[in-house]
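Reminder to self: tokens first, then the designed residues, so the page reads top to bottom the way the pipeline ran.
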């Protein structure tokens, strides 16, 4: 595995692959890798000639009061995991490589960035879109692999790619869960033992919602309120949101109709971290 810390070195390697018509799969990460990330690398390995991953804890996507400093890091372990999965290139830049002095551009994706997580993290998705656009320009992948756990991030990036005619396909990959159902996340390592026990209720509330929908519940606000109540009862953390939204627009669904694809999504603030989870449900006819 080649490790590049600067963009000129990365660009040189990419231009060689491109002139040899190699198909490039790209997995951007912020490190502290888990099975969720590794499942993306494996998927990329299967359908590309070259697998590129990036590891960069992107300051632009953290608000001033968020966990940038505390965000878990373990570079040597990550490097080894990526190597073992057959990654060809790891790009792990310093901040100044991606955001040199006088950097001043931001990519704003409209309404999709303003709902769900966007309400409590108003600058987050501009930070994500900006760094991912930069990374896509550097890596020039044929396929971008992203995880459904960050469903809103997937939608924002898909919209950016469509709107800006970026020549890249997106593969949205399934959520990987712990045995008890907790969605894997680098931030799980920041939970106290008690919070870790409670965190399982995010996926349980979502599973109950999915079951209720499949059994015939069609009222969006009733479904949302049941999720809210279940979570408020089970966790000591503060509920940020529990919503039933359209999976394309991310706007609330009032009445679920057969064939609709709806997203049940939740976010909870624990003492040191905020967890999110979701389930995509196709409403049966
Ligand atoms: O999902 C993440 O880890 C990050 O938001 C991403 C896509 C690597 C951009 O920093």
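Designed residues (285 positions):
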């Amino acid at each position: 595995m080649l490790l590049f810390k600067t963009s000129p070195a990365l660009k040189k390697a990419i231009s060689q692959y491109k002139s040899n018509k190699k198909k490039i799969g790209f997995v951007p990460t912020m490190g502290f890798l888990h099975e969720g990330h590794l499942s993306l690398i494996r998927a990329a390995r299967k359908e590309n000639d070259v697998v590129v991953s990036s590891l960069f804890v992107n300051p632009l996507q953290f608000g001033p009061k968020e966990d940038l400093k505390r965000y878990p890091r373990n570079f040597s372990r990550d490097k080894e995991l990526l190597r073992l999965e057959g990654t060809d290139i790891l790009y792990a830049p310093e901040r100044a490589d991606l955001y040199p002095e006088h950097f001043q551009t931001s990519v704003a994706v409209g309404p999709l960035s303003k709902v769900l997580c966007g309400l409590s993290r108003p600058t987050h998705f501009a930070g994500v879109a900006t760094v991912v656009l930069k990374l896509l320009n550097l890596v020039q992948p044929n396929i971008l692999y992203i995880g459904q756990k960050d469903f809103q991030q997937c939608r924002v990036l898909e919209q950016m790619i469509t709107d800006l005619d970026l020549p890249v396909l997106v593969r949205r990959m399934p959520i990987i869960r712990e045995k008890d159902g907790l969605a894997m996340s680098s931030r799980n390592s920041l939970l106290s033992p008690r919070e870790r026990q409670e965190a399982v209720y995010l996926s349980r509330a979502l599973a109950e919602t999915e079951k209720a929908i499949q059994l015939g519940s069609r009222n969006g606000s009733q479904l949302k309120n049941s999720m809210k109540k279940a979570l408020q009862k089970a966790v000591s953390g503060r509920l940020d949101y529990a919503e039933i939204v359209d999976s394309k627009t991310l706007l609330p669904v009032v009445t679920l109709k057969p064939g609709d694809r709806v997203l049940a999504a939740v976010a909870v603030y624990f003492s040191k971290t905020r967890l999110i989870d979701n389930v995509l449900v196709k409403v049966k006819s």
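The chain has a mean pLDDT of 98.
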